[in-house]
Structures are given as structure tokens and as C-alpha cells.
Give the backbone structure.
Amino acid sequence: MEEELNAPDGAQYTAEEPEEDAGDPGVRTVELIESAPGVRTASADCERGKGITHPLGCEWVDLSVSVRVKKRNKGERGVTMKQLVQPTSGYAQSGDLLAVMGPSGSGKTTLLDAIAGRMKSAAVGGSITFDGSVLTDSQHQAFVSYVAQEDSLLGVFTVSETLRMALRFRYGYNMKSEAELKSLESHALKLVGLTSAAGTKVGDIFRKGLSGGQKRRLSLAVELVKAPKVMVLDEPTSGLDSASAFGIMSSLTALAKLGHTVIATIHQPSSDVWTLFDKLLLLSEGRTLFFGESRAAVGYFGALGHQCPELSNPADFFLALINTDFPLHACDLGYLQRAYGKGAPAAAGSAYAGLLPHEVALAKRQKKHVDLDVLHAGKACGFLADCVTLSKRNLLNNLRNPGIFWVRFAMYTMLSLMIGLMYLELGDDFSPSSVLSRINILFFVAAFLVFMSVAVLPFFIIERATFLRERGNGSYSVGAFVLSNVSMALPGIFVIALASTALIVPLAKLNGFGIYLAALTAALFTAEGFMSLTGALVPHYIIGIALGAGVFGFFMLVEGFFIVKDDIPPWFIWVHYLAFHTYIFRAFMANEFEPIASFDELPGGAPAQFSSGRAVLEFYSMADVAIGRDIGIVVAFGFFFYAMYAVVLQLFHTGKR
Ligand SMILES: Nc1ncnc2c1ncn2[C@@H]1O[C@H](COP(=O)(O)OP(=O)(O)OP(=O)(O)O)[C@@H](O)[C@H]1O
């Protein structure tokens, strides 16, 4: 079972030397994986390129990335294209650890995103092939795992639970036994050095958990357990101390030696880490200054007149050389670019320079198409299994994250108790003034309890980052995500509505407990659907809260309380129909007033304004209320919001940038 972790395509991974592999004199043997009994280790089976009969990972030819930017010059308007990455060619094959280095802003992330197929709005030129084929989006997701620069983990889960869920998304429930899953989990933990932290919670704003470096390592392990063929990592060592950085890079090297292709950007590798790289791609200002065997880089730059001093870390030397932001040691970049472009590096035996190394050419001849069986192995479970995993996760997350359920539950309970006490035994009072009290309590519940759903938005937006990562890596579909969100939101909503109803209705002695509960549950369900949609539409929760509050405020204004429907100006009447608050208020009003046959007369025997509950409903233009239909409309709005939420996620939250 460890083999699945270690070998992305076990069938193609043998201990035999490939026919035409000339070997590599500069090979290092890596003994880094502490293997479980019976697990092949990197050192036992393969050195770079050896033992892998299927050596081609990915190749890019004349790859460039451009984005549209507004023209900046005075008097000029419109947009122009800005090239973030100039045409560059290269490859990373099974067994390789390719390090992409360059100063900040040099285009490393952009290049990585392009290779990993994560560009949405940018124009990507040239070609990128994996095992000789151009991949579709879904093939990309199965073939390539991407570890982004920012960690996006759910804070309420332990390290072990986080990995278990990643395994469930990969294997579902029938493919692996509990023992096999446990073994995969513990092997991944060993690889990233988190065994002792297996039971530690990731941590969030409510609780302390893993350190930044540990989170980084967990993000890596989450992708590692899926055994992807190609791993693309943006700054896997950022925030780590030098020993941890070396540990992580060692694990990645070992992984590469077992047949994976590993491409990673790295900012400031120590000299120990530098020795682990197989290949190096050096970028500055979006231009490639070097691509080739990392051990050839010192000689290459030496040949161009930039000799790395003895006992210096070559990584530090190169980065200082090509950093134009702080040009303390910076050289003439133009010269290096021209030299690279002219093929000077080929002479140094280091550059791609349009010449495919013989093993890549061989693999291209042997294997023209992507092995679809391998790709399908990337995701071995279906929609239902994903729904089960996501539902379990949502339920636990809702229960464990105080901000999602418990804080709201406490707020609703306290407020409902106050409402119940404020309007104590109102139902026994049939004086003319009780009409106003009844209408006010119902408006307050319909408007303010719904309004409080805004509080959940920040958590939706925090969790969106996790969704983006998982969707980008093909863990599950939008449908499974939304369906499990909806189904797991319902129990919490029902409990909150029940607690609120149980406090308000008996204390205030209102009519129709069951209908009141149904209307409040529907209202909270729909409000949460609206906030989910809002959360998907806005870039930041502050904007989302402002937007949600603004819309809810507007809906309250036109729901028929502050101004009766017949008096709403024609230019706003459409909002009255669009606002789901309207239907909640109508259902509450009908539920309360319909059963009241009469109200008391005014003191002195003068008739009151409203003789009966029916008269109140008529005054508020609510004579036509059919409670079931109105609650049904609220629920329909809820499903509409969730459907729109799914559409927005599908179209705009693809995990690409
Ligand atoms: N959508 C965009 N529009 C305009 N410029 C962009 C866009 N995306 C990135 N850039 C610019 O492209 C350059 C390269 O960005 P990129 O994030 O790839 O750099 P990087 O080398 O990964 O930097 P760092 O090491 O700091 O993460 C930067 O100058 C950045 O401002």
C-alpha cells in the first residue's frame, strides 16, 4: 500500500534500467525515506532516471504568460498586454526535483501556475505537455497536485483527521481497508515530520494549533497522500527553519526518486538544500537565465564571467547576481539573457536550448499519449462518497467551530429569551394595543433573526480558500460540495429555530407553534443560502457583511411592516415581491392573526381600529395569505440562492487565477 504513496504509476515503475538510459555520472543516492517494512526506499530502487521505464514528466516549449493591464501613460487609454513570463522551454521528468528560483516578483508563481494549468484570465502561449500530451482540465487535476503558497486548512481538525479526509476524497470508502489508510497516513506524516503532531488541531482564530511551518508541512502531506504523478509546489519551505526546510526538500527528493516529478519554487535555499536539486530554472523579471542540471549552474555562470566564490552557497550567489530590485551585486541581466538565448548554456551542458535530452526524446517516441488508466487512478471514488465525506466534515466543522454554530446559538437563544420576556403572555391580551405588540414582535423575528445570519459570512469566506484548493486539485465536484453544505446546514438551522421558537412562542403565548417553527426554519435556511451566495460573490468578508446588511435592510423596508404593500411606491414594489422577508412576515402574520376572532373595544365602548385578526390582515394587504404557499416561496428562494451559489462556484471559483 505504501507503493501507492510512493509510486504514482506502479505498473510502470521497475528496478530495471531503461534501454537507452545512458545514466548520469552526477547521480546522488538518496536515503531519505524511513520506510515501513516491505516498502521500497528511494535508495534501494532508483537513482535519478534509473529504474523508471517511463521517464517523461512534463515539458513546456516557448511557454509565456501575459495579462491585460490598463495603459499607464498619460493620455493613453485602454488596455495593453504585459508579459509576466517571457517564452521559456524546459522539462521535468520522473525522478527530477526541479527548483524554480528567482527574486521576488520574477514570475516563479506565474510560471508554476501555467505549468500546473491554473491560469484562468492570463494568456498562456507555447505548449505544455504531460507525457507527450496536452491535458484537459480534469486530466490536469488527476495528474498534477498543486501546493499553493498560502495554507488553506480547516482549523478545527487534527493533522490526522485532515489527512484522513484527503484520503477519503482520493479513495472513498471501499477501496482501502482501515489498516491501509492508517498506513498511508502515517507514512505521509513521516515524510513531512509531523508524526508527533498527528493529534494536534490545525488551529484558527479560536484556538492555537500548529505553527506556520507545521501547517506548511501538513499542506504538503495532504497532497502527498494522493500520490500524484506530478507535484507542483509554490514555496514549500517558506516559514520553515533550515532543518525543517531541509527535511521537507529531502522528502520531496526522495519522492522524486520514486518516480514522481516534483517542481518547486524556492526563495532562499540553504547550501544543504541546494545539493538536493536535480534541475534548476532561474528567473529574473520573467526571463529565464538558466535552465538545466543544477550542478552545472556554477560552471555555466563561471563561464560567463560570474564565478561563485568557493565555500559560498550557489543559491545565494545567483539570487544576488540577478536581483535588480536591490542591485548590490546585480550584474547585467541583458547579457545573461542574451547568453542564454544564444545557446551558450548548451556548451556548458546545462540548458534546454531547444535540444531534448535523449531520454526525453526516447520517452516521447515510446509513449505518445497519456495513460488514461493512470489519470483515472487520480480520483478513485465518486459523487456519493464525496458527499458523505464532505457532509461528515461539514457537520463536525459546524459543531466544532464556535463561530458557525455555538456563537449563533447563544445569540439567538439569548435574544429569543429577551423577546419572550418582553412580550410575556401577550397572547392573552386582546386589547387594541396588543395588535401593535403582536405585529412588532413578528416583524422583529422575521427581520432581525434573519439579519443575524450575516454573522456566519466570515466563516464561509475563510472556508472558501479550502474549497478552492481542493477543487483545483480535483478532490470533489461543486455539486457534492454544495449539496453537503446545504444538508449539513439544516440540522443546525433547525436547532436554532427550535430553541428560538420554544422560548418566544410559549412565553409570549403566540399562536401556531408548528407553523411559527416552520416559517422561522425556512427563513433561516434561506438567509443562510443568501449569505452563501454573497460569500461566493465578494472578494472579502467586510464587503460581504456590508452587502448582506444592505440587502437585508432594504428587504426589511419593503416587507410590508414599515409601509403596507398597497402604499409602496410603484418603483419599489418589485423589491417587495423579490424580498423573501415579505413571505416570512406574511406567514407569521397569518399564523398569529387568522385565529383571533375579535379584539376588545376601546375604553368607553368605542370600536377599536381592528375588530378581528382578519381585519388586521386586510389592513396590511395580507388577506390573500396562504401560509403553506408563502413558506414554500421562502424555501424556493433558499434553493434558488443555493443553486446560484453552485453556479458562481462552478464558474468563478475554479482554483485557477
Ligand atoms: N494578474 C496580474 N496582473 C498584473 N501583474 C501581475 C499579475 N499577476 C502577477 N503579476 C506580476 O507579475 C510578476 C510576477 O509575479 P509572481 O507572483 O509570479 O512572482 P514570484 O516570483 O512568484 O514572486 P514571490 O516570490 O514574491 O512570490 C509580479 O511583478 C506581479 O506583480
Remarks:
- The chain has two domains: 93-122+130-376, 383-652.
- Residues 67, 69, 82, 84, 102, 104-110 surround adenosine-5'-triphosphate (CB under 6 Å).
- Residues 1-55, 344-360, 366-377 have pLDDT under 50 and may be disordered.
